[in-house]
Amino acid sequence: MKSLANIGQRLNQLVAQPAQPSDAAELLTLGEEALEHWVRAKGKEPTQDLREGYRLLALHRQGADKDPSFNACRETCRELVYHYNLLTMEPEHPGFSAAGPYDAPGSQPPVSVHQRQNGVPGIG
């Protein structure tokens, strides 16, 4: 498991370049490793279980156990899973270009389920 500083450094490197399908698994792993730190800080052994097919979501559930303040992290975890799915299932989405994420002419960032459900302005 990487240190939190190394996780942050690698994330900064990844977001400084256009999103690539090959980055998807690493991004998900970095998210898992960050949550492993949280779970260990709570004195628990990080789970290897899956929730909705993702270890990241199982780690969030484990970390949020009896700690309602950690529920705020849930949406971030879901967005990371959404980004993973987008990169692996729709790598040609117009929101990703050689110029950088969401810089393709006329493109808009992909809309998350959260944005649709919560009525973000401009989302139908």
Give the key terms.
single chain; 124 residues; mainly alpha; two-stranded antiparallel sheet; 2 strands; 50% helix; disordered C terminus
Overall geometric form: globular
Largest sheet, if any? 2 strands, antiparallel
Order of helices and strands: HHHHEEH
Total strand segments:
2
Give the N-to-C terminal Cα separation: 41 Å
Radius of gyration: 16 Å
Q: Which class of secondary structure composition applies to the elements?
A: mainly alpha
- Mean pLDDT across the residues is 79
Summary of the model, kept short:
With 124 residues, this protein is mostly helical.
Secondary structure layout:
Layout: H1 4-15, H2 24-41, H3 55-64, H4 73-89, E1 96-97, E2 100-101, H5 113-117
Antiparallel strand pairs: 1-2
Helix pairs in contact: 1-2, 2-3, 2-4, 3-4
Structural description of this entry:
- The C terminus is likely disordered.
- The protein has about 120 residues and is mainly alpha-helical.
- The protein has one domain.
- It has a two-stranded antiparallel ribbon with strand order 1-2.
- The protein has 5 helices and 2 strands, in the order ααααββα.
